Amino acid sequence: MTASPARAAVPSALRRARDAVTPATRDFLSxxxxxxxxxVAYHLGWxxxxxxxxxxxxxxxxxxxxxTLSAQAAGAxxxxxxxxxxxxxxxxxxxxxxxxxxxxxxxxRHRPTxxxxxxxxxxxLTGDAMLALAQxxxxxxxxxxxxxxxxxxxxxxxxxxxxxxLDVAFEQRHEVSLAExxxxxxxKTGALLRASAMIGAVLAGAPADVIDALSTFGAxxxxxxxxxxxxxxxxxxxxxxxxxxxxxLRSRKKSLPVTYVLSQGGLAARELASWFRTASPDRSSANxxxxxxxxxxxxxxxxxxxxxxxxxxxxxxxxxxRIEAATQALxxxxxxxxxxxxxxxxxxxxxxxEA
Amino acid sequence: MTASPARAAVPSALRRARDAVTPATRDFLSxxxxxxxxxVAYHLGWxxxxxxxxxxxxxxxxxxxxxTLSAQAAGAxxxxxxxxxxxxxxxxxxxxxxxxxxxxxxxxRHRPTxxxxxxxxxxxLTGDAMLALAQxxxxxxxxxxxxxxxxxxxxxxxxxxxxxxLDVAFEQRHEVSLAExxxxxxxKTGALLRASAMIGAVLAGAPADVIDALSTFGAxxxxxxxxxxxxxxxxxxxxxxxxxxxxxLRSRKKSLPVTYVLSQGGLAARELASWFRTASPDRSSANxxxxxxxxxxxxxxxxxxxxxxxxxxxxxxxxxxRIEAATQALxxxxxxxxxxxxxxxxxxxxxxxEA
Lengths: 355, 355
Hints:
The structure is a homodimer. By secondary structure, chain A is an all-alpha fold.
């Protein structure tokens, strides 16, 4: 998506975090009833819907990697951050399972979503169970700072939900300012990434300036993450992202590049605004295509408008600026060099990823 | 429903707890986005759906009363239990809002449910927000035992959800043993009442024997609560309960009195089992009534069968036995006399209530 033509190398911290977090997560899941535990194992990609173990699976483990590196950034062993890693991943997946119910999405990571397999009731209950379990994981950590870590995660969860509430509200509105959109993103995507980047240091009892630096790092990373998500949602390669071409335009998502262009005014903004107002999401053809333009042509035209008006460039530049600010925050405080370099590698991976 | 002909007097502890918990809850709700805060205020009965303040409202405040009395039982001021009271009430209401979505119930306490007014997405998000906020409330308590209290509540939440998962699973099964049904109830209804009865004492740093006694008290109270709920669900006066006559039979709920009769075997059990198998819940008339019997006649016949086979008497006796065990647990440990008497008064109120 950016200057680098080759696919970004996956930082080894992500693999290490995945390996460390999986057995700990498995242990905690055994506390759930069999049905909920099986549903979570499926959702995490450990099994198929019949419960048969599968290879690989799961997401990119960004949050677990941040949580364990955050403990190491505070001079503690990665182990100290594991409860934070498990808990953050549970909260992340709680939100994915509930999101899929609310959005009616039937596929995630090329597999049927939980509600599509087990129904809405099981999806709601399984999400609820993951959220409750996340708090248990933290509160059973041996760290004397477990209450502060649990409070951080609960606050992040509330802000994540607040972001989702705003996201839903914005869908009903024609005008959303760039500031409002950034505020929504800082909740929906930023809150949990920020908490993940802090939680290991909190569990390790790090000094306030280190925790503050990790907070800035995580918050900036969160915005950068969403900017790249939004770029991939418009210009991502379907073969790599697994999503249809112009995916976010097809669903008429007022993502950050779109909101940027709309906020700039001018001819392109007016044409784009008019297209967003008149074309119905996802069902353009059913609702009668314009005589001149097929739905796909309309999406291609919208993508061109966003690019011509500078939305694509702005989002890519802004993502790099955010990563720069994140990096600077880490350099401003004393921190072991290894974990700092690995945190920065994750930040770069996030803006260079292609899926 | 029992020997007392007059309606049971509402213990003053319930009113005191409601008065103490409302302002604290209001303070914490101000952290939510405006939409979620307004939805919670409506759900709690503080406002109508347009946000206009209403008089009274809310439930019986049993959990807040248990939480504050539990602090007093440990010799601490009621104030120490307030974060536990607010948090328990938030978890209780999280589960009600999500339950109404899952059950498709359009009315609660004679008012439209949250999802019926604001839609499923808002109901899921509002429930999620209440659950996250409950943990924040506890973790910001000044008590040095806040982490233990938060862990207790998270565990209770997980067990509550487990009870709901079992409840859903049992609806799909023809045979559920009495032991299985009691296990489900100890999660769905018992877990949070037990945690409420313990949480004030935990926040107060009470000795283990006092906490254990309150745990037994709350767990037994939970089963008694559900037994009375189940009796009211069949024989409650619609004018008092606000539910239709034979409400639980109409929805074919395999409640405790029903499960007791089915587990006893014999003619009545066989006729009852056959009625539960063949009659469709809620839609008997739409699915074609039996030529001999209207749906209402069928429900009356089922109620008679349960009563004749001893299900009604068993449930009433069992509720009293549970309250007796709960009371004995409190008498077995040292505790100030006032809070003990008030806890016991709540227990009696619960079995004597008519709604």
